[in-house]
Amino acid sequence: MIPSRKFLEEAGKRVAPFVHKTLVLTSYFLNEKSGAQLFFKCENFQKMGAFKMRGAINAIQQLSDAQKKAGVVTHSSGNFGQALALAAKSLAVPAYIVMPQSAPSVKVEAVRGYGGLVTITASNLEAREKAADKIVQEKGAVLLHPSNDMEVILGQGTAAMELLEEIEDLDYILTPVGGGGLLAGTALAAHYFGKNTRVIGGEPLAMDDAYRALKSGKIEANEFGDTIADGLKTNLGDINFPIIKTLVTDIIRVEEDEIIAAMRLIWERMKIIIEPSSAVAFGALLKEKERFKNNKVGIILSGGNVDLSNLPF
Amino acid sequence: MIPSRKFLEEAGKRVAPFVHKTLVLTSYFLNEKSGAQLFFKCENFQKMGAFKMRGAINAIQQLSDAQKKAGVVTHSSGNFGQALALAAKSLAVPAYIVMPQSAPSVKVEAVRGYGGLVTITASNLEAREKAADKIVQEKGAVLLHPSNDMEVILGQGTAAMELLEEIEDLDYILTPVGGGGLLAGTALAAHYFGKNTRVIGGEPLAMDDAYRALKSGKIEANEFGDTIADGLKTNLGDINFPIIKTLVTDIIRVEEDEIIAAMRLIWERMKIIIEPSSAVAFGALLKEKERFKNNKVGIILSGGNVDLSNLPF
């Protein structure tokens, strides 16, 4: 269930030529405010604006030549759809992206701009899955899951690998947790390349399936609730959860107003744009300041794709 | 009227220990869009969020010990007030900042947070000047002008010096122009450290005194008009204008909607926060794309202090 070190090393080599080695930024003010020494890994500066590019580029490269020719398909309405389209374009592979009617036209246009072949369906999950299945059958395309896929997980782990190459002795790395791909990949990276680096997930209280799963030992569902961190409205899966269960120290739950406050602090003080999902990891740190005091903490700022016409402040 | 190379070199040495050597960022998308190769000097990441820190720290160091003991005073309601407060604090010098009643409380608090001694007056210029004069007389403090002061100009020039150290063969450097301190300092830096690097100012059409001054050969006033680029609502002065007249190639005027569009492009594509004044230089480039085509162009992003509750989009 836990891939060995060499799988990560190989993913690192596969991913590197196609992604930005993103900046690691620090902030004197936020160090003072938190009492910890913070290192922000800026995946908001990544190609297409989010870490998801890493998993997509790794997964596509692992397909056979016949599969690459047939293409890849996903039904993510968020960053993974854009990431898959751009990654596929970089590798000259067709990408079919199923998107719900409810998706903002700017996102549909972004996917098309990256060369993705868009299919619009009804907004419910069933319709989206059905449309994706149809493409799999008709085109022979490979369905890629945004987070519950080992090659995607390994790809996402390369952000933390880069971070640990630059800052070797981190005590903690914090990431947001939604579907669990980034958290699982980060946990693997810390396990093999950290020096006793613990990994903690930040999760919206309103969608706390990962928190409950870590307590119960089994995958949990999000029944109700909503969150501004719209990239995190998903569940852990059977491939990433065993990694998370084994290698992640804890999940810290963050309330909506804390997410917005953390986001605003980073915008105002670091002058960079992060999406609400990214702010959840920093919000988790602020929520449990005492725990991180005087520690060196890496925070993965997962992305920067926000709708500037619809900000929470 | 034009200081020699050694004055800039010395300013560079004086300023360096007290400021961030800010990042130079690039954007594949914006290169494609503009047809030029762009290098953004990110003074929005500078201490207190703007280049003004550079001029303030240089000017204070040039005072005598007695002057330093008495302190410095300015009546800027914008970034220079904050810059002077923080620079003075770094050098253990008292800073008296005269601010109008109309200044947002967040700005007043920022100045106080940097240790500035704030005097609130009526919002008109006369009241502010009177209050500043009173402090000069009572405390013996030295009045520093935000842009029409040779030591301030030399300090502002250090941003372009750093940029040219990193990217040696820039064809152009663009800066916004308001009071003229940054533009004059940049022109000096390009003159001594560039390789035929031309300097162009971007100016709001509604406040185009620098454009008119370059045509008429004398300092011009802004009679009417308003601009979202609130840092640029000021006039050239008798110390910076001779430098600008001699060393600046041109001023490009930018309309309000072009400023906002340029700002939005940088936020959305580079995921960094810049203030409207900073967007004017990039807006000038977009306005006259043909002129810059296939050239290497440095753009000084002057600052990132915006009110997130009051955005133009």
Brief overview:
The structure is a homodimer of 313-residue chains. Chain A is α/β, with parallel strands linked by helices and 313 residues long. The first copy, chain A, contains 14 helices and 10 strands.
CATH class of the largest domain in chain A: Alpha Beta
Number of strands of chain A: 10
User: How many discrete domains of chain A?
Assistant: 2
Question: What spatial order of strands do you see in the largest sheet of chain A?
Answer: 1-2-10-7-8-9
Describe this structure in words.
Chains A, B: InterPro entries: TrpB-like_PALP, TrpB-like_PALP_sf. Chains A, B: Its cofactor is pyridoxal 5'-phosphate. Chains A, B: One of its GO terms (molecular function) is L-serine ammonia-lyase activity. The structure is a homodimer of 313-residue chains. The model of chain A has no long low-confidence stretch (mean pLDDT 96). The first copy, chain A, is globular and about 55 Å long. The first copy, chain A, has 14 helices and ten strands. With 313 residues, chain A is of the alpha/beta class. Chain A has two domains: 196 residues, Rossmann fold, CATH 3.40.50.1100; 91 residues, Rossmann fold, CATH 3.40.50.1100. In chain A, helix 12 crosses helix 13. In chain A, the strands form two sheets. A six-stranded mixed beta sheet of chain A has the order 1-2-10-7-8-9, sandwiched between helices. A four-stranded parallel beta sheet of chain A has the order 5-4-3-6, with helices on both faces. At the A-B interface, helix 12 of A face helix 12 of B.
